[in-house]
Amino acid sequence: MVKDMYIESIELNNYRNYRKLKVEFGKNTNILYGNNAQGKTNILESIYMAATTKSHRGTKDRDIIRIGEDESHIRLFLRKRDVSHKIDMHLRKSKNKGVAIDGIAIRRATELYGLLNVIFFSPEDLSIIKNGPAERRRFMDLELCQISRLYYQNLASYNKILNQRNNLLKQIYYNKSLIDTLDVWNIQLVDYGSKIIKERKNFIDMMNDIICDIHSRLTGGREKLEIVYEYNVNENNFEDVLREKLETDLKYSSTQAGPHRDDISFLINGIDARKYGSQGQQRTVALSLKMAEIKLVKKIISDNPILLLDDVMSELDTDRRNALIDEIKDIQTIITCTGYDEFIKEQVIINNVYSVVNGTATRVRTEES
Description:
Layout: E1 5-15, E2 18-24, E3 29-33, H1 40-52, H2 61-64, E4 71-80, E5 83-92, E6 98-101, E7 104-105, E8 118-121, H3 133-147, H4 149-172, H5 182-218, E9 225-230, H6 238-244, H7 246-252, E10 263-268, E11 271-272, H8 273-276, H9 279-301, E12 306-310, H10 318-327, E13 333-337, E14 350-357, E15 360-366
Parallel strand pairs: 3-13, 3-14, 8-12, 12-13
Antiparallel strand pairs: 1-2, 1-4, 4-5, 5-6, 6-7, 9-10, 10-11, 14-15
């Protein structure tokens, strides 16, 4: 049964171009409008940070803190299952971030995951199909980390072991006797890597169960879409491949095999959309991907995720925009755009409208449902 989770408000101090800001949100659609480079995306980023401890841009904490300041604060208030919660996040230039839930400090990011599920959709996502494999791995990892604490732990451990193994490969170049210690890292890399591969496979299988019908509707039944997980190694042969590629690894001083080199492909009627799809087809695939992501998260957490749309509507044609709007009618959505008028005629309940200008957000309209 879908429950009612939504963000009530967010407060920022010394966050990017905001010295001090408070924005309140309604349960349905909330609009942040203004010219480019005024700080609209920064508000969405802060929400994503509060939910995941990470920037959707991959930005380091010290670069998020307002210029000239040493620290930044995010305070997000949400309601979930009729209970209010507060997420406090303290970003510091010279130390790790501090996070507290309802006033109680947490030690690990995994303690935060699952409290607030958000899906971020930006114009960059429209080109995820034709971008490099790193973008598609990032798509899988960002969503899987939110819906599986164990995946986050396995991924963090894998990346740590991978870095240590790569450092050892560089040292072996100067000291050949160190090669005997490589097996210790290989065992751990295979252990964590195999778990990542299994979860990614399962994630793609679940996405395929949903995305085919969505894409068929978007294309009037003309196209059948399938996501294919292109794993670099599978969990059964990972250890063997590491041994086979040892000379290559030593030559390049980096690990050439593993899930850090995975990719996914998108087949439209059996044809690879990354290579042969038109721009319109690629955009429709990206939209299908995000809509399937919404449905999958709903299914897994038995709740509605929060949807953050960063200037996406203007990138979609009328049919695609209407399909997305129909999908988000029962979801709290926070939208950024350059013009408010374009949403007046859309069939959504608009709760709040804010004008964002140079680090300020002024509420100009409220329509409570």
